[in-house]
Amino acid sequence: MARTSPHQRRIRACPNDRGPIAPCPGRGCARAPPTRGMPPNHWTEDRTPYLRVAAVGGERVVVFILAGGVGERLWPWSTPERPKPFCSLPEGDTLLGMAWRRAKRIDDHVLVVLNRRHLDLARALFPDLSPEQLILEEASRGTARAMAAALEAYRDRAQVPDREVCVFLPADTVTRDEAVYAAAVQLAARHARQAERFVLVGVPAHRVETGFGHILAGALLEHGAAVHAVDDFMEKPRPEAAAWLLRRGALWNTGVVAARLGLFREHLAELPEAAVSFDALVLDSEAPKAVVQAEMDWDDFGTWGAFARRYGRETAAQGPSLIERSPGALVLPEPGSLRPVVVCGLPQAVVVEGPEALLVARRDLLEDPQTLAGLRARLRF
After folding, report:
1. Which of 4, 46, 187, 240 is the most buried (most CB within 10 A)?
2. pLDDT digits (tens, 9 = 90+) for 242-256
3. Considering the entire predicted model, what is its pTM?
4. What does the alpha-carbon distance between residue 158 and residue 21 come to, in Å, rounded to a whole number?
5. Which CATH number fits domain 61-300: 3.90.550.10, 3.40.50.620, 3.40.50.300, 3.10.105.10?
Protein backbone atom coordinates (compact mmCIF):
# COMPACT_ATOMS: atom_id res chain seq x y z
CA MET A 1 0.00 0.00 0.00
CA ALA A 2 1.30 3.45 -0.86
CA ARG A 3 2.62 5.57 1.98
CA THR A 4 1.44 9.07 2.69
CA SER A 5 3.79 11.59 1.14
CA PRO A 6 5.88 13.70 3.56
CA HIS A 7 3.86 16.85 2.91
CA GLN A 8 0.59 15.21 3.96
CA ARG A 9 -0.78 15.24 7.51
CA ARG A 10 -3.36 12.94 9.03
CA ILE A 11 -5.64 13.24 12.02
CA ARG A 12 -5.15 10.38 14.48
CA ALA A 13 -5.90 9.67 18.11
CA CYS A 14 -3.47 10.57 20.88
CA PRO A 15 -3.37 8.08 23.80
CA ASN A 16 -2.60 10.85 26.28
CA ASP A 17 -5.77 12.84 25.75
CA ARG A 18 -9.46 11.96 25.82
CA GLY A 19 -10.71 14.79 23.67
CA PRO A 20 -10.75 15.06 19.87
CA ILE A 21 -7.32 16.09 18.67
CA ALA A 22 -5.20 16.32 15.61
CA PRO A 23 -2.83 13.39 15.57
CA CYS A 24 0.16 12.20 17.50
CA PRO A 25 1.27 9.31 15.29
CA GLY A 26 4.38 8.39 17.28
CA ARG A 27 4.87 6.92 20.73
CA GLY A 28 6.04 8.97 23.65
CA CYS A 29 3.81 11.94 22.96
CA ALA A 30 4.36 14.71 25.50
CA ARG A 31 2.28 17.82 25.80
CA ALA A 32 4.19 20.98 25.02
CA PRO A 33 3.48 24.13 27.06
CA PRO A 34 0.55 25.98 25.51
CA THR A 35 1.14 29.22 23.69
CA ARG A 36 -0.86 32.13 25.07
CA GLY A 37 -4.15 32.48 23.24
CA MET A 38 -3.69 29.24 21.33
CA PRO A 39 -4.83 25.67 22.00
CA PRO A 40 -2.07 23.40 23.39
CA ASN A 41 0.07 21.52 20.91
CA HIS A 42 0.90 17.84 20.86
CA TRP A 43 4.36 16.79 19.77
CA THR A 44 5.78 13.61 18.34
CA GLU A 45 9.24 12.37 19.22
CA ASP A 46 10.68 14.28 16.27
CA ARG A 47 9.04 17.50 17.64
CA THR A 48 6.50 17.78 14.82
CA PRO A 49 3.49 19.73 16.14
CA TYR A 50 -0.08 18.45 15.69
CA LEU A 51 -2.55 21.07 16.82
CA ARG A 52 -5.69 20.38 18.80
CA VAL A 53 -8.91 21.11 16.95
CA ALA A 54 -10.35 24.28 18.43
CA ALA A 55 -13.97 25.44 18.41
CA VAL A 56 -15.14 26.28 14.91
CA GLY A 57 -14.53 29.99 14.97
CA GLY A 58 -16.75 30.39 18.03
CA GLU A 59 -19.82 30.21 15.78
CA ARG A 60 -22.53 27.61 15.40
CA VAL A 61 -22.31 24.81 12.89
CA VAL A 62 -25.48 23.07 11.79
CA VAL A 63 -25.09 19.33 11.26
CA PHE A 64 -27.46 17.48 8.92
CA ILE A 65 -27.73 13.68 9.11
CA LEU A 66 -28.82 12.18 5.79
CA ALA A 67 -31.06 9.22 6.66
CA GLY A 68 -33.19 8.87 3.54
CA GLY A 69 -31.48 5.89 1.92
CA VAL A 70 -33.34 2.63 1.36
CA GLY A 71 -30.41 0.22 1.67
CA GLU A 72 -31.41 -2.10 -1.18
CA ARG A 73 -28.10 -4.00 -1.02
CA LEU A 74 -28.93 -5.14 2.54
CA TRP A 75 -32.35 -6.62 1.77
CA PRO A 76 -34.25 -8.25 3.45
CA TRP A 77 -32.71 -6.84 6.66
CA SER A 78 -33.30 -3.39 5.18
CA THR A 79 -36.55 -2.69 3.33
CA PRO A 80 -38.30 0.40 1.95
CA GLU A 81 -40.58 0.42 4.99
CA ARG A 82 -37.74 -0.17 7.49
CA PRO A 83 -34.51 1.05 5.87
CA LYS A 84 -31.07 0.35 7.26
CA PRO A 85 -30.66 3.51 9.41
CA PHE A 86 -33.48 2.17 11.61
CA CYS A 87 -32.57 -1.54 11.66
CA SER A 88 -31.32 -3.15 14.85
CA LEU A 89 -27.60 -4.06 14.78
CA PRO A 90 -26.10 -7.04 16.62
CA GLU A 91 -25.10 -4.84 19.57
CA GLY A 92 -28.67 -3.52 19.83
CA ASP A 93 -27.86 -0.10 18.38
CA THR A 94 -28.93 1.46 15.06
CA LEU A 95 -26.95 3.24 12.37
CA LEU A 96 -28.99 6.41 12.87
CA GLY A 97 -28.48 6.24 16.64
CA MET A 98 -24.71 6.03 16.17
CA ALA A 99 -24.76 8.86 13.61
CA TRP A 100 -26.75 11.04 16.03
CA ARG A 101 -24.17 10.58 18.78
CA ARG A 102 -21.32 11.38 16.38
CA ALA A 103 -23.14 14.51 15.22
CA LYS A 104 -23.68 15.72 18.79
CA ARG A 105 -19.93 15.55 19.40
CA ILE A 106 -19.51 18.07 16.58
CA ASP A 107 -22.24 20.58 17.49
CA ASP A 108 -25.47 20.59 19.48
CA HIS A 109 -27.47 21.86 16.49
CA VAL A 110 -28.34 18.61 14.67
CA LEU A 111 -31.09 18.03 12.09
CA VAL A 112 -32.18 14.70 10.60
CA VAL A 113 -33.19 14.49 6.93
CA LEU A 114 -35.45 11.52 6.18
CA ASN A 115 -38.35 10.29 4.11
CA ARG A 116 -41.76 11.29 5.45
CA ARG A 117 -42.98 7.70 5.58
CA HIS A 118 -40.22 6.91 8.12
CA LEU A 119 -41.31 9.63 10.53
CA ASP A 120 -42.80 7.14 13.00
CA LEU A 121 -39.56 5.14 13.01
CA ALA A 122 -37.59 8.30 13.82
CA ARG A 123 -39.97 9.28 16.61
CA ALA A 124 -39.74 5.79 18.11
CA LEU A 125 -35.95 5.99 18.05
CA PHE A 126 -35.78 9.59 19.32
CA PRO A 127 -38.96 10.31 21.30
CA ASP A 128 -37.64 13.69 22.48
CA LEU A 129 -36.86 14.96 18.99
CA SER A 130 -38.70 18.19 18.19
CA PRO A 131 -40.39 18.81 14.80
CA GLU A 132 -37.82 21.56 14.17
CA GLN A 133 -35.06 18.91 14.21
CA LEU A 134 -36.64 16.93 11.36
CA ILE A 135 -36.61 17.71 7.65
CA LEU A 136 -38.91 15.43 5.68
CA GLU A 137 -38.59 14.36 2.05
CA GLU A 138 -41.69 13.33 0.14
CA ALA A 139 -39.66 10.84 -1.94
CA SER A 140 -36.06 9.63 -2.02
CA ARG A 141 -34.46 11.05 -5.16
CA GLY A 142 -30.75 11.09 -4.39
CA THR A 143 -28.58 12.96 -1.95
CA ALA A 144 -28.25 16.10 -4.10
CA ARG A 145 -31.99 16.77 -4.00
CA ALA A 146 -32.20 15.80 -0.32
CA MET A 147 -29.42 18.22 0.60
CA ALA A 148 -30.91 21.05 -1.47
CA ALA A 149 -34.32 20.61 0.14
CA ALA A 150 -32.81 20.41 3.63
CA LEU A 151 -30.79 23.59 3.15
CA GLU A 152 -33.77 25.58 1.85
CA ALA A 153 -36.02 24.34 4.66
CA TYR A 154 -33.43 25.21 7.27
CA ARG A 155 -32.74 28.63 5.73
CA ASP A 156 -36.46 29.45 5.67
CA ARG A 157 -36.97 28.35 9.27
CA ALA A 158 -33.91 29.89 10.86
CA GLN A 159 -33.39 32.92 8.61
CA VAL A 160 -29.63 32.34 8.64
CA PRO A 161 -27.07 34.07 6.41
CA ASP A 162 -25.31 32.32 3.54
CA ARG A 163 -22.02 32.42 5.45
CA GLU A 164 -23.27 29.89 8.02
CA VAL A 165 -21.31 26.61 7.91
CA CYS A 166 -23.31 23.44 7.25
CA VAL A 167 -22.05 19.88 7.60
CA PHE A 168 -23.68 16.80 6.10
CA LEU A 169 -23.06 13.36 7.59
CA PRO A 170 -24.36 10.07 6.16
CA ALA A 171 -26.36 7.88 8.53
CA ASP A 172 -25.03 4.64 7.04
CA THR A 173 -21.31 4.76 7.79
CA VAL A 174 -19.59 3.31 10.84
CA THR A 175 -16.45 4.04 12.85
CA ARG A 176 -15.02 2.94 16.18
CA ASP A 177 -12.84 6.05 16.38
CA GLU A 178 -15.51 8.53 17.47
CA ALA A 179 -13.09 11.15 18.81
CA VAL A 180 -10.97 11.18 15.66
CA TYR A 181 -14.10 11.38 13.50
CA ALA A 182 -15.37 14.38 15.48
CA ALA A 183 -11.98 16.10 15.30
CA ALA A 184 -11.80 15.62 11.53
CA VAL A 185 -15.30 17.00 10.96
CA GLN A 186 -14.66 19.98 13.25
CA LEU A 187 -11.49 20.74 11.32
CA ALA A 188 -13.40 20.47 8.04
CA ALA A 189 -16.02 22.91 9.35
CA ARG A 190 -13.36 25.34 10.55
CA HIS A 191 -11.66 25.35 7.16
CA ALA A 192 -15.02 25.72 5.40
CA ARG A 193 -15.65 28.89 7.40
CA GLN A 194 -12.31 30.31 6.29
CA ALA A 195 -12.34 29.29 2.63
CA GLU A 196 -14.91 29.08 -0.16
CA ARG A 197 -14.55 25.32 -0.63
CA PHE A 198 -16.35 22.06 -0.05
CA VAL A 199 -14.31 20.32 2.63
CA LEU A 200 -14.42 16.51 2.72
CA VAL A 201 -13.08 13.96 5.18
CA GLY A 202 -11.05 11.11 3.70
CA VAL A 203 -9.44 7.96 5.08
CA PRO A 204 -6.55 6.06 3.44
CA ALA A 205 -7.73 3.39 0.99
CA HIS A 206 -6.39 -0.06 1.84
CA ARG A 207 -7.95 -2.33 -0.80
CA VAL A 208 -9.33 -2.13 -4.31
CA GLU A 209 -12.86 -0.81 -3.79
CA THR A 210 -15.32 0.18 -6.49
CA GLY A 211 -18.16 1.21 -4.18
CA PHE A 212 -16.56 4.31 -2.64
CA GLY A 213 -15.56 7.73 -3.93
CA HIS A 214 -11.77 8.22 -4.15
CA ILE A 215 -9.80 11.38 -3.42
CA LEU A 216 -6.25 12.25 -4.45
CA ALA A 217 -4.96 14.70 -1.85
CA GLY A 218 -2.57 17.43 -2.90
CA ALA A 219 -0.75 20.31 -1.26
CA LEU A 220 -1.20 21.19 2.40
CA LEU A 221 -3.59 24.15 2.76
CA GLU A 222 -3.25 24.84 6.51
CA HIS A 223 0.04 24.87 8.36
CA GLY A 224 -0.13 22.45 11.30
CA ALA A 225 -3.43 20.92 10.18
CA ALA A 226 -4.42 17.95 8.05
CA VAL A 227 -6.25 19.96 5.37
CA HIS A 228 -5.14 19.34 1.78
CA ALA A 229 -6.17 20.47 -1.66
CA VAL A 230 -8.01 17.88 -3.74
CA ASP A 231 -6.09 17.09 -6.91
CA ASP A 232 -8.72 14.68 -8.20
CA PHE A 233 -12.01 13.09 -7.15
CA MET A 234 -13.42 9.94 -8.73
CA GLU A 235 -16.83 8.60 -7.73
CA LYS A 236 -17.07 4.77 -7.60
CA PRO A 237 -14.27 3.93 -10.06
CA ARG A 238 -14.02 0.78 -12.15
CA PRO A 239 -11.70 -1.97 -10.78
CA GLU A 240 -8.70 -0.95 -12.93
CA ALA A 241 -9.03 2.70 -11.89
CA ALA A 242 -9.55 1.74 -8.22
CA ALA A 243 -6.33 -0.31 -8.30
CA TRP A 244 -4.45 2.63 -9.82
CA LEU A 245 -5.85 5.01 -7.19
CA LEU A 246 -4.82 2.62 -4.42
CA ARG A 247 -1.24 2.64 -5.73
CA ARG A 248 -1.34 6.45 -5.78
CA GLY A 249 -2.24 6.58 -2.07
CA ALA A 250 -5.84 7.74 -2.62
CA LEU A 251 -8.29 8.39 0.19
CA TRP A 252 -11.79 7.00 0.45
CA ASN A 253 -14.50 9.62 0.71
CA THR A 254 -16.36 9.16 4.02
CA GLY A 255 -19.43 11.06 2.83
CA VAL A 256 -18.80 14.01 5.15
CA VAL A 257 -18.94 17.41 3.47
CA ALA A 258 -18.75 20.87 5.04
CA ALA A 259 -19.22 24.25 3.35
CA ARG A 260 -20.88 27.59 3.75
CA LEU A 261 -24.61 27.58 3.13
CA GLY A 262 -24.20 29.92 0.15
CA LEU A 263 -21.73 27.60 -1.60
CA PHE A 264 -24.09 24.66 -1.21
CA ARG A 265 -26.98 26.68 -2.57
CA GLU A 266 -24.94 27.91 -5.54
CA HIS A 267 -24.00 24.40 -6.66
CA LEU A 268 -27.42 22.90 -5.96
CA ALA A 269 -29.46 25.63 -7.61
CA GLU A 270 -30.17 23.59 -10.75
CA LEU A 271 -30.86 19.88 -10.35
CA PRO A 272 -31.58 17.29 -13.06
CA GLU A 273 -34.96 15.61 -13.11
CA ALA A 274 -33.43 12.21 -12.46
CA ALA A 275 -32.21 11.14 -9.04
CA VAL A 276 -28.55 12.04 -8.59
CA SER A 277 -26.04 11.93 -5.76
CA PHE A 278 -24.27 15.03 -4.48
CA ASP A 279 -20.93 13.29 -5.05
CA ALA A 280 -21.63 12.64 -8.71
CA LEU A 281 -23.18 16.07 -9.35
CA VAL A 282 -20.86 18.36 -7.39
CA LEU A 283 -17.78 16.61 -6.07
CA ASP A 284 -17.01 14.83 -9.36
CA SER A 285 -16.85 18.25 -11.05
CA GLU A 286 -14.65 21.34 -11.00
CA ALA A 287 -16.21 22.62 -7.76
CA PRO A 288 -13.57 23.90 -5.28
CA LYS A 289 -12.66 21.14 -2.82
CA ALA A 290 -10.36 20.36 0.10
CA VAL A 291 -9.98 17.24 2.22
CA VAL A 292 -9.15 16.50 5.84
CA GLN A 293 -7.09 13.32 5.93
CA ALA A 294 -8.03 11.20 8.96
CA GLU A 295 -6.43 8.02 10.23
CA MET A 296 -9.37 6.07 11.66
CA ASP A 297 -11.45 2.94 11.42
CA TRP A 298 -14.26 3.63 8.96
CA ASP A 299 -16.58 1.77 6.61
CA ASP A 300 -19.63 2.39 4.47
CA PHE A 301 -22.27 0.05 5.88
CA GLY A 302 -23.89 -0.67 2.54
CA THR A 303 -23.27 -4.33 1.70
CA TRP A 304 -23.15 -7.73 3.36
CA GLY A 305 -19.39 -7.59 2.88
CA ALA A 306 -19.29 -4.46 5.07
CA PHE A 307 -21.42 -6.26 7.64
CA ALA A 308 -18.87 -9.11 7.75
CA ARG A 309 -15.93 -6.70 8.04
CA ARG A 310 -17.46 -5.03 11.07
CA TYR A 311 -18.67 -8.05 12.98
CA GLY A 312 -16.07 -10.67 12.13
CA ARG A 313 -16.18 -14.20 10.81
CA GLU A 314 -19.39 -15.42 12.45
CA THR A 315 -22.23 -13.27 13.68
CA ALA A 316 -25.65 -13.75 15.23
CA ALA A 317 -27.70 -10.71 16.07
CA GLN A 318 -30.60 -11.61 18.38
CA GLY A 319 -31.92 -15.03 19.27
CA PRO A 320 -30.17 -18.41 19.70
CA SER A 321 -28.01 -19.78 16.88
CA LEU A 322 -25.57 -22.58 16.13
CA ILE A 323 -22.97 -22.18 13.38
CA GLU A 324 -20.94 -25.27 12.48
CA ARG A 325 -18.29 -25.65 9.76
CA SER A 326 -19.48 -22.40 8.20
CA PRO A 327 -16.63 -19.87 8.42
CA GLY A 328 -17.70 -16.36 7.51
CA ALA A 329 -21.40 -17.10 7.95
CA LEU A 330 -23.67 -14.21 8.95
CA VAL A 331 -26.85 -15.03 10.86
CA LEU A 332 -29.38 -12.27 11.49
CA PRO A 333 -32.76 -13.32 12.87
CA GLU A 334 -35.46 -10.72 13.33
CA PRO A 335 -35.10 -8.85 16.66
CA GLY A 336 -36.89 -10.74 19.40
CA SER A 337 -36.97 -14.03 17.51
CA LEU A 338 -36.68 -17.07 19.80
CA ARG A 339 -36.49 -19.73 17.08
CA PRO A 340 -32.95 -21.21 16.94
CA VAL A 341 -31.07 -20.78 13.67
CA VAL A 342 -28.72 -23.62 12.76
CA VAL A 343 -26.19 -23.28 9.92
CA CYS A 344 -23.94 -26.22 9.03
CA GLY A 345 -21.50 -26.59 6.14
CA LEU A 346 -22.30 -23.26 4.45
CA PRO A 347 -19.13 -21.12 4.35
CA GLN A 348 -19.69 -17.41 3.63
CA ALA A 349 -23.45 -17.85 3.91
CA VAL A 350 -25.83 -15.01 4.67
CA VAL A 351 -28.91 -16.10 6.61
CA VAL A 352 -31.16 -13.11 7.20
CA GLU A 353 -34.72 -12.86 8.38
CA GLY A 354 -36.48 -9.62 7.55
CA PRO A 355 -40.01 -8.22 7.39
CA GLU A 356 -40.43 -9.37 3.79
CA ALA A 357 -38.49 -12.63 3.50
CA LEU A 358 -35.97 -15.11 4.86
CA LEU A 359 -32.82 -15.02 2.71
CA VAL A 360 -30.19 -17.78 2.52
CA ALA A 361 -27.40 -17.07 0.03
CA ARG A 362 -23.66 -17.07 -0.59
CA ARG A 363 -22.32 -13.67 0.36
CA ASP A 364 -20.27 -13.16 -2.80
CA LEU A 365 -23.42 -13.49 -4.90
CA LEU A 366 -24.98 -10.55 -3.06
CA GLU A 367 -22.27 -7.97 -3.80
CA ASP A 368 -23.99 -7.06 -7.07
CA PRO A 369 -26.94 -4.83 -6.09
CA GLN A 370 -28.92 -6.09 -9.06
CA THR A 371 -29.00 -9.59 -7.56
CA LEU A 372 -31.01 -8.58 -4.52
CA ALA A 373 -33.16 -6.16 -6.50
CA GLY A 374 -34.02 -8.97 -8.91
CA LEU A 375 -34.84 -11.43 -6.14
CA ARG A 376 -37.11 -8.92 -4.44
CA ALA A 377 -38.84 -8.06 -7.71
CA ARG A 378 -39.57 -11.74 -8.39
CA LEU A 379 -41.33 -11.89 -5.03
CA ARG A 380 -43.45 -8.98 -6.36
CA PHE A 381 -42.88 -6.54 -3.53
Report:
1. 187
2. 999 999 999 999 999
3. 0.85
4. 31
5. 3.90.550.10
